[in-house]
C-alpha cells in the first residue's frame, strides 16, 4: 500500500475511461453516443498523459515564487506532458466538432442517427 | 538553398491569409494556394536535385534557439527531399486538377488542401514523436474535410468512418507516445534511439502501440474498411491525394520509426504488409467500381511497401531503392488513374469504353496502368526486380511467392479494366472532354513516370546497361501517329532493317538466327501493313515495342535485360492482340498468362542469382543451388509463351481474333521468343533432374502431348484463323520436343523447324488473313470455291499446307525426317509414335483449310470478291520463294544450324554430301527427291494433257448429282463439322478440360475474393471492431500472450 | 492519504458518469454526463499539479464541447420536428 | 551408257512390270471376290478394258485446275513411292531411286498423292467427294499409328532406317524374316496394312455402294484412267514395301510376285470375311488392339 | 448478442494490455533528461514563469502552431461543409423566442467575460492559462451572445480578418525568429525582459495573444457556422 498514490489511481481511472470509451464506440448504435464515447476516450487519454508528468509531492511548473526558481528541477512536476495534453485537448475539440458536424449532415441525409443505416459503401 | 522551414511557413501563412480574401474571390484564393504549393514543390525539388547531383549533407532545421532534444527539429535529407517533393507535387497538381471543384466548394477547401500538404511535409521532416502526432492529425482532419467536397450520403458516411477510425488510431498513437516519453523522458526520435533504454514491458507495449498505429494508418488488411470506403466515395482528386500524398507520408513514417520496433515486430509488420498486399489485390479482382478498385490497389501497394520496409533488415541497403521505385510508380500511376477516373465519371469499369472518345486520355490511362503494374520501363519494374532478387538472395521464397501472386492479382483487374476501356463494346454516346487544368497534371505525371523510370534505372548498376534505343524508337512512333500508314510503315521497316544491318555482325550464330526470325520476319509481316488505309493509330508504337522486346531478348547479356525485354515484348504484343475484333477476353488471358509466366521467370532468375556476384545470363550455367527449381520455373515461364499444353488456352483466341498482319506476327514470330528462352535455358543449364527423372524427359512428353492436342483441336475448328492458331500450338509442341531430345539432331530439328514454322505459319496466316479481309468472316463453312476468285492466295495456302504437313518434296519434310532420325537415335519411340500420329492429324486440318475455303462450291454471296490485297500477297510470295529455295537446297538451312550446334552437341551430326544428308540411321537427298517428283509429275501431267487435250471446262455446279441438279451451293459444299466421324471416334480427347480447369481457377479466385470482401460490410462500427481486433491479434502474436 | 481518497472518489464518480454517458437512453443526459466527466477530470488535473491543463479541460473539454454537442443535438431535434 | 539414263530406263521398266502385275492382280482378286460371293465375275483382264475405255471417251470436262491436276498428283504419288522403294534386293538397277531417301521418305511420300487427290476431289464440288475425303483422312490417321510403331520397332531392331539394310538383315533363311524375328511389329504392320489397302472392312472411304466411289466421284474419262493406273501401281508399291519390311524382300521378280501376291491375299481374305466398318468404328478399332500391339512391339524391341 | 460478446472479449483483451502497462508503471521520482533541462534552464532560456507556457510556446512551438492550425482547419472545414448545400434548402425561418432578461444579462456579461479571456491569455506566461484557455473563454462569451440575443451582430468578415491576421502574424513572428534570432519561432526576437513581469519572456506573450485571438475567433466561427445553419432553416 505504501506505493499506491494518486498517480496510480488516476492512471487506472484513465485506462478505465479509455476502455469505456472504446466500448461505447464499438457497441453504441447512436452516432451521437459514439461521439460521446469518443470524448470519454479522449478524456481518458488526457488523464493518462497528465499522470505521466506527475511526480509525487511536487508542485505545478509555474515559477511564481522565488523559492521555486532555484533548484527547480527537484521541485516541480514535468511540464512537458502538460503541454502535450493541452495540445491534445484542443485537437480533441477540433475532431469532436467535426464529428458532430458529420453527424448533423448524416442525419440530414437519412433522418437517422443509427450507425447501421449508413452502409452505402461496402465490399 | 531555401530553408525547408519555408515550406511550412508559406503553406501556413497562405492558408491563414486566405481569411483576408472576400467570399467571392475564390479564384484568387485558388491561385494563391497553387502558387504556394508551387513554391514548396520547387523548394523540395531543389533540395532533391542538390542531393542527387551535389551529394550535399543532410540538413537539420532547428526551431527556436535550442538544439534537440530540447526543441523540435526537422530534417531534410535525400529521402525527405524526395518524399516532400512528391507530396508537394501531388498537392500542386492535385490542386490544379481539382481547381474548379475546390473553387466551387469555397476558399476554405483550399485551406484544407494546403493544410493537408503542410501537415504531411512536417510528418515527413519532423524528428519529434509528438510533433509527428500533431501533424498527422492535421493531415487526417484535412482529408476528412476534403472527403466531403462532394456531399452525398456515401461520402459523408465514409468521412465519418474515416474520422472515427483515425480517431481511435491516433488515440492509440498518442498512448504509445505518452508511454515512450514515460520511459525515455524525451520525445526526440534520435535522442530516444541513442539512449540505452532498459527493456520494460510497458516500453515495449508503448512501442507496439506506436508502430501499430502507424501500420493502421497504412490501412492493413483486414482493418481497412474505412479507408476503402473513402477511396470509393470521395472525389477522385481527393482519393488521389489520400492514396499518393497521405500514403507516401505514412510509408516514410514507417521507415523513420522502424528502428523503434524490435526485430520480431518488424517481421510482423512485414507479414501484415504482405498479407495486405495479397488480399487487397485478391479482393480488388471482384471490384466493378473504378475508385474502389483503385482503393484496393492503393492499399495493396502500401502494404507491399510496408512489407519491404519491415524486412529491410533482411534486404539491406537496397531497401531504399526498392521502396522508392515501387512508391514512385504507385504515386504517379495512382494519382493519374484517380484523376482519369474523375474525368470519366463512370461507376462501372465496364462503361469505360467511353474513354475511347478521348484518345489522349486513353493513352495516358494505358501508361498509368503499365506503370502501376510494374512493367518496364517504369520504376516499379526495377523495384519488383530488385525485391525479388533480394528475397531470393536471402532465401525468403514464400515471400517471393506472395509478392508475385499479389502482383498477379493486381494485373488481373488492372488489365481487365484496360481491356474494357480499349475494347468493350458498350457504347456510351458522350464525348469525354477534359479541361486543360485536368490534362496538364495528367500529362506531367505520365511524363514523370517515364522520367522516373529512367532515373531509377540509372541508379541501378545493371539497369543502366539496358539498351533503350529500340524502345525509344518505338515510343517515337507514338508522336508521329498523325502520319498515314504508308509513311509510318516505311519508316518502321527502315528502322528495323537498319537496326539489323548495323548490329547483326556482333551476334553469334544463334543470335543471328533468332534475330533474323524476329527482324526479317517482322519486316516481311510489316510489308502486309501497306494494305491498310488511313492512319492505323495505335499499331506502330506497339508493333515496334514488341520487336524491340524481341531483339532485346536476343541481345540480352544480363538476366535483367532479358526480363526487361521479355516484359516489353509482352506489352507490345498485348496491344497488338487487343486490336483484334472481340479481343477483350483473349487479350486479357494472353496478358495474364504472359505476366504469370514472366513472374515465374523472374522468380527463376532470382533463385539463379543466389550467391552470384552479378546477374549476367552466364550465371545460369553455373548453378549450385536449387537447380531443378530454377530450371522448372524458367521452363514453365518460357512455355507460357510457347503455349504448351495446359498453358495454351490464351493462344487460339488471341491469334485468331488479331488483324490480318498481326496474326502472323504473334503466331509466327512472337512464339519463338519462348523457343529462344528455352534454348538459352537448355544451353546454360543442360539436363536437370527431379529425383531420377530428367526434366527433358518430362518436357518431351509435354511437347508431344501439346503437339497432339494442338493438332487435334485444330482439326475440329470451324474458324480458319483459330485452326491455324491451334496448329501453332501443335507446332510449338514439336519444337519443345525437339529441344528436349538434347541431341544434335533434336536441336537441329527444333531450330530448323522454328524457321520453317515461321515461314509456313506466316504464309498461311497472311493468306487466310487476306481471305478474311475480303470475306469478313472467319468461318470456313461460310466460304468455299474461292480458288477462282483468289488464285494467288490459294497457291500460298497450298504450298503452306504441304510444308506444314511435311510432305516431300517441300522443306517441311526436312523437319519430319530429322525428327524421326532424332527420335530413333534417342530411342524415345512412344513419343515418336504420338508425334507421328499428330503429324498425320495435321493432314486433317490442312485439307480442311484448303478444301473448305478454296475448293468445293462457291457461295452466291461471294460472287464478287476480289483477290486479297496486293500488299498482303507480297510477303507471301517472298516467303514462298524462300521455301522453294530451302526445299531444293536443304543444306543451305540445315548446315549453318548444324555448325552452330557443333560446340554444344558435337556428336550425331548430319554428314552432308552435296544435298545428301546422312545420319547414323538414314539418309535423304532433298534435291533428287525434288527432281524425281517434279520429273514424274511433269511426265504424268504431260500424259494427261495429251489424253485430255480437248477437255472442256464446265461450271462448278455442273456435277453428277444422283440424277438431280443440286439446289444450293450451301447444301452442296460439305464443310461444316467436316470431321464429324473423327470427332465421334476420338473427340473426347479434346474435351475442353484444361479450359475448364482455368475457368474454375478463375471462378474460384473470384469467389474467394467475394467472400473476403464481405467483411467490409459498410458499418463504421464493424470497422472499429476490425481495428481493435487487429490490434489484439497482432499484440498476441507479437508478445505471445498478454 | 486524503488526496488518495479524494482522487479515488473522483475516479469512481468519473467512471460512473462515463458509464451513464454511454448507457443512458436519453442523449441529453449522456452529453451532460460526458461533460461532467470532463469537469471532474479537470479537478483531477488540479490534484495532479496541472492547473494549466485543468483550466483548459474545464473551458474546452467540458464547456465548449458540451455546448457544441447541444447545438448539434438541438439542430437534429429540429430536423425531426420538421419531419413530423 | 550414262548411269543416270540407265537408271531411268530401269525405273521405267519397273513401272511397266508393276503396272501390268497390278492390273492383273486386280482383275484376279475381283474374280476371286465374285466367286466367293457365288457370282461369275469379270474376266481377269477387265482392268485393261476399263482403262482403254476411259481413255477413249469423247466427253471430257474439267472442273478447274486442281481438279485437272489431281490425278497427276495421285499418280505421281504412286510412281514416286514405287521409285523410292528398293524393289529387287541385290540388284542395283532395281533399287531405282531409293538412294534419295530412307524409310521416312517413303512413309511421308505416301501422302503426296493422297493430298493431291483430296484437293482435286474437293474441287470437283461434289459433296460426296468431300465426304469421302473426310472419311479417308480420318482413317489414315488411325492406321498410321500402329504402322509407325511397327516401323519404329523394326528400326530399333535393325538400328537403321535404310530399307535396303533392313532387307539385307533378313537374308539367309526364312526364320530371319522380321515376320518371325519381330512378330509383334509384324502383326501391327499387317493390321495397319489392311486399312492401307483400303479394302473391306476399311473401304468406307470409297464406299462403292453408298456414295459413288468416294473421292473420285466426279472423275471420268482420261482423269479416271490416270487414277486407275495409279490404282494398279500404288497398292503394289505398298505391297513391296511390306514385303521388304517383313518378309525378307525379293531377290528376283518371281519371288517378288509370289510374296506380294500372298500378302495381298491376306487383305483380300480379311475383306471377304468381315463386313465394313464405319469410320469412327475403324478409328476406334485402330486405336485399340493394333495400337497396343504396336506399343508392345516398340517396348519389346527397345528393352529386350 | 454474439456481437456484444465479441466486443466484450475485445475490450477485455485491450484491458489486459492496459493492465500490463499499468503493472509495469512505476511512479516517477525525478524529471526526465529533457524536462530537467527545461526546469533548470527554462527561466534563463525563455524567461516565462509558467514553464508549461515556455514549453508550449517556445520549446515545442511547432506543435502549438500545428494545434492552432488544427482548430483553424476544423473551423474551415465546418465552414464549407455546412455551407455548400445551404442554397438548396428553402429559407423557412423558425422564430425562436428569446428571453429579455437573459438578453440584458448577456449584454452586461459578455464584455466582462471577454476581458477575463484577454487577461488569461495575456498572463499566460506567468500564471496558469494562456492563449487556448483565453480563446475558449472569449468564445464562450460569444456563445452566450448567440444564445441570448435574437440577432447577434456577429460579423463573420471581421472575425475572419482577425483570425487571418493573428494567424499570419504568428507565422511571421516565427519567421522573424529565423532572421533575427536563432531559429523558427524563437522567442528571443524581443528582449526577455524581467522575469515574472508581463513584458517578459520575449515574444511569448505576443504569440499567446495572437493565439488567444485566433482560437477565440476560430471557436466563435465554428459556433457561428452552426448557428447560421440553424437560422436558415
What key attributes describe this structure?
heteropentamer, B: three-stranded antiparallel sheet, two-stranded antiparallel sheet, 41 helices, 8 strands, 71% helix, elongated, D: mainly alpha, 12 helices
- Structurally, the number of domains of chain D stands at 1
Task: Report the β-strand fraction of chain C as a percent range.
Answer: under 5%
Mean pLDDT of chain D: 85
Biggest β-sheet of chain C, characterized? none
What's the number of helices of chain D?
12
What Rg of chain C, in angstroms, do the CA atoms define? 15 Å
The N- and C-terminal alpha carbons of chain D lie at a distance of 49 Å
Mean pLDDT of chain C: 87
Report the order of strands and helices of chain C: HHH
Anisotropy-based shape of chain D: globular
Protein architecture, described:
- The complex is a heteropentamer of chains A (123), B (1042), C (84), D (304) and E (233).
- With 1042 residues, chain B is mainly alpha-helical.
- Chain B is 71% helix and 2% strand.
- Chain C has 84 residues and is mostly helical.
- Chain C has one domain (2-83).
- Chain C has helices spanning 2-23, 27-47, 51-83.
- In chain C, helix 1 runs antiparallel to helix 2 (27-47).
- The mean pLDDT of chain C is 87.
- Chain D has one domain.
- In chain D, 70% of the residues lie in helices and 1% in strands.
- Chain D has twelve helices and one strand.
- The longest helix of chain D is centred in the N-terminal third of the chain and has 34 residues, at 3-36.
- With 233 residues, chain E is mainly α.
- Chain E has one domain (49-83, 90-232).
- Chain E has helices at 2-24, 33-45, 51-59, 61-83, 100-122, 131-148, 156-180, 204-232.
- Chain E is globular and about 55 Å long.
- Mean pLDDT of chain E is 82; it is low at 84-95.
- The chains are: A mainly alpha (123), B mainly alpha (1042), C mainly alpha (84), D mainly alpha (304), E mainly alpha (233).
- Strand 8 of chain B pairs parallel with strand 1 of chain D.
Summarize the structure.
With 84 residues, chain C is mainly α. Helix content of chain C is 90%, strand content 0%. Strand 8 of chain B pairs parallel with strand 1 of chain D.
Describe the SSE topology.
The complex is a heteropentamer of chains A (123), B (1042), C (84), D (304) and E (233).
Chain A: H1 6-27, H2 31-53, H3 79-110
Chain B: H1 5-17, H2 26-54, E1 59-62, E2 73-76, H3 78-97, H4 99-105, H5 107-125, H6 129-147, H7 153-184, H8 189-194, H9 201-217, H10 225-233, H11 236-257, H12 263-284, H13 290-310, H14 312-315, H15 319-344, H16 359-372, H17 379-393, H18 397-423, H19 436-458, H20 469-478, H21 485-503, H22 509-527, H23 540-555, H24 559-578, H25 584-608, H26 627-642, H27 651-657, H28 662-685, E3 689-690, E4 693-694, H29 695-715, H30 720-740, H31 744-775, H32 791-805, H33 812-826, H34 829-854, H35 870-888, H36 890-901, E5 911-913, E6 916-918, E7 923-925, H37 926-947, E8 952-953, H38 969-972, H39 980-986, H40 993-1013, H41 1020-1039
Antiparallel strand pairs in B: 1-2, 3-4, 5-6, 6-7
Chain C: H1 2-23, H2 27-47, H3 51-83
Helix pairs in contact in C: 1-2, 2-3
